Batch of 4 targets.
Target 1
Amino acid sequence: MAKMLGMLVSTSRQASAVARLAQLSLPGRVHIGTAPEPVRRLSSGLTAVDALLDGGMPCGRISEVTGARSSGKTSLLLAILAASTRRGEVVACVDVADALHPASVARAGADLQRILWVRPPTLSAAMRCTELLLQAGGFAVVVLDLGGPLPGRLRGHFWPRLLHAAEHSHTALIVLAPHRVAGSFAALSLTLRLHRPLWLRGLWPLFEGFQTVAALVRNKLGMPGQKTVIRVRESCSFPEPAFTSTNHEHDSRSAFTSTIHEHDPQ
């Protein structure tokens, strides 16, 4: 009898704890007494980037890719679009700055027939379009590209709504911005920083591309703080980078031809 009363008290306390947590309106899901389901990942098609992100961009979550102009954000976007459409998936891109170049997307290897390109007139319209796309479902990834300088103050109430819609549709929502914008609602934040330009040696040196450092500054699903150095060629979407840890970099040998190959970071 005492054992049954103890179980009832324990169950009552657990229900009370769940009710209190529900009142807090915390982002994400709260699991009591059970292990959460593993998060499915969306591969970027780049081995080192996927390794940095524990398999790729998390589905049903918000991921941020931040950095200044010419840091490699668009190149990474093209790589993700190409990898997703090659797998037969449908993707959407909400382009606030109207900067997406269809010819570059096609050259990166993406199937334009599987990409929904939305060019909203305002930031508020872009946020609403993103929410509608997530609610519609059927997209492996929805990209919200906020472009360069943000046109006005972002409304904080949109982020919990976008996270809720992404969770229910199991869609990977990727936000591109100059700096972090989603706050605690982002499961991970990947910051790109220009490392150095690359030049072809010769009598007249020619610009070949640049190296950029990708740093995982936030990761609610794993270990943050790791880095990878990526070489971006001028004429390609995104090359295969060499994975490096936070404290050291290692040599990599050429593994691909054309515009995709690993490199030896200096």
Target 2
Amino acid sequence: MKLLHQDGIISGFWATEIDPLVPEIVDCGDTQHRYRSRVAPHLHRHWELHYQVAGKTNHHSVGGRKFILKPGSIYCVGPDINHWHEHISRQPVHALFVGFDLAAVAARHPEWDVFRHFAPIFSLHSVHQLERSMSRVLEEATVVLKHQSSGLRLALDMLVLDVMRAFSDPVGARSSVAKHPAVLRATHLLETRFREPWSLNELADHVEMSRAHFATLFQQNTGIPLHKFLIRARISHAEQLLRNSEQSCQSIAKECGFTTIQHFSRAFKLQTGITPIRFRQQHRV
């Protein structure tokens, strides 16, 4: 894997040459950009999906087309289309992106009729559920896990399928998830950005709801308070890393958003009944 630099990036990464066994993943990244920074006009030979985590961006393409992305928006552009971006919010712009060969996914799943859904340029808004799908591709691409090539290919296929579903199956319309839209948005944030030190006030601001109302609504919909939901999301990710990676417990604690190894060990044992080391010993293949 090769890490590249792009002007205007404050933090994050842009990676290419991900996995020689999965050449359909061309590049991917998780980046934060300065206010008024721009990505100059360019084109590429693959498809690219952008997901807006925070901030506001104008995406332009030839022919005068313009898309304004806000948190929860995606933007997709196909091969050989000249396009450029301008980050216009005063706060840093946080975005996830994946460059990929859509034809390879279409060949694996001809029954999906992929190209009927993927126009050369399109955007979707209020699709916060796709942050989880994008994050899974980035995780499979950058964290050393067992069966990584298979996991990466499956993550890409699932991302494409989730984008297709977002056209006709908005998350608020799914009868199997009887949750308030604000709670759904909050749980997606906690499950995908669990490394961040979320507070009740911050999440309430994200979903544009009063602190007291949101706290009550969240517990009614999930059965637990917000801080416990966040701990569960972190421990769930830690379990995956303990099973499938060679990272140390200290490294896993940091990766999952815990400030100290002691806090991680206490929280892990409280939820699972055993220590992280014991869990790893029991789940070694």
Target 3
Amino acid sequence: MKNLSKYLLIVALIIVQSLNQTYAASKGDDKKVIKEKSFQIAEGKKINVTCDGGDVVFTPWDKSEVYVKIIGNDNAAEKYDYIFESNSEEISVKAERKGGWGWFSNISLKIEVKVPARFNIYTNTSGGDIKVGGVQGGIYLETSGGDIWGDRFEGNFYASTSGGDINLFCSNAKIEASTSGGDIKVDYTGVNLGMELETSGGDIEVKLPADFDAKANLETSGGDVDCNLTLNDVKRLSETEIIGNINKGGKPLSASTSGGDVSVYKK
């Protein structure tokens, strides 16, 4: 009888857990606008977005205004606190998880931000993708578990992800990009302002104008290195390392991977 009771209890617990997961999933089907707000602010100022697990997307417009829209399911509405703060120099947006919820929370969360075309962006998310398009300024992006996309940006660009890929399409930018577990792809146009690329477990692919000038340091510990631009004053040239000038030399182009290939090609 004791064994039967124990068996029935286990079955009941399994059913309850299954129902909880089904309910959580049903609450995750429909997304809605959780919170939105506009801020009047001059171009060239700054926004700082921090998020405990969600995607963040930035796009430009021709207004002296920042518009923030948070989209998510019911679980995202119930289990996060959303904090907006601002002054004449900076806007702060925080999406913070409330305590006391576990694995089966089924959170769907996205923060969409429109900023003036010339603006500075600082973003950190614990578990989502970050996308920035068409913005000129200082751009600093960090995610613990997602991909980073940068498109048509100019200025200083810093990107770091612990578990995703980095894809950049840009011009006239100083770039620092690193990932612990993904690939890095850069399609670049314009003058070299410096480029440092590093991955621990992926490939690096860089496409450049034929007249791109750089002091190149390209290396891999577990793949091949290739560059089809004109090389001058070459210090080292092997299957795993190239050190020398591309065309006339200039600011650094550094690309390093521990477990993949490094490819630098002219467009």
Target 4
Amino acid sequence: MPKTILSLSTLCLIVCFSLFSAVNAGTNSSGNTFNASVTISSIAESAENNAEVAANFIYDSLQLSEIGMTKEAMKYAYKGHQALVKKGSVPNADILTVVDFSQPSHKKRMYIIDMKNYKVLINTYVAHGKNTGLQTAERFSNKLESLQSSLGFYVTKRTYSGKHGLSLKLDGKEKGFNDNAEARAVVLHGADYIGDHRLGSAYMGRSFGCPAVPQAQSLKIINLIKDGTTLFIYHPSAKYLHGSKILNG
């Protein structure tokens, strides 16, 4: 995936011209030429006050559409991640995990992104809650014993060894949407009921509300995102998108 010099797509032109002075793109002696050798990192730094522009640029540059992520998922993930970082809520801002529940469960809808070097580290499956839906995620809850997934932003905490092996505690940062995560024991863990071997089934296995990942990848994922990184669970739910204080603050 591209990491530094990028092709000059239409979006790139729009972004680069709009940030021309900020990224020192450069001109010739007549002052009317444009230097296309702009890195993603310089664009992102210059666009820190324009989250949507930066998110769109990263989305296109990392070719996230080719691996299934919706542009809306990246837009909201980037905006919220930046808000949490500015508040000092994210000890490790270099890793952003996006779960795109607008996609069905047989798609690889978890994306772990290196926000320092701008590349996708892992793209894999992730389960939704048993009462959230079958193939697609449709219902969400923050209530105890709902067995549903909870939308919004989380910050990862420490690991522990439980019934699913190594697991990762999650701190839900959105009151009314996911702040009962710890009380509900919603954690990230590995599971045998999700993965390539389930593609022939009517739907992937479901959890009790946890974002469960394939067992074979769980150790790598947990060790990569533990101890203070952002996890965002997205769905185009009007109730969440309009009600999130992180996104609308």
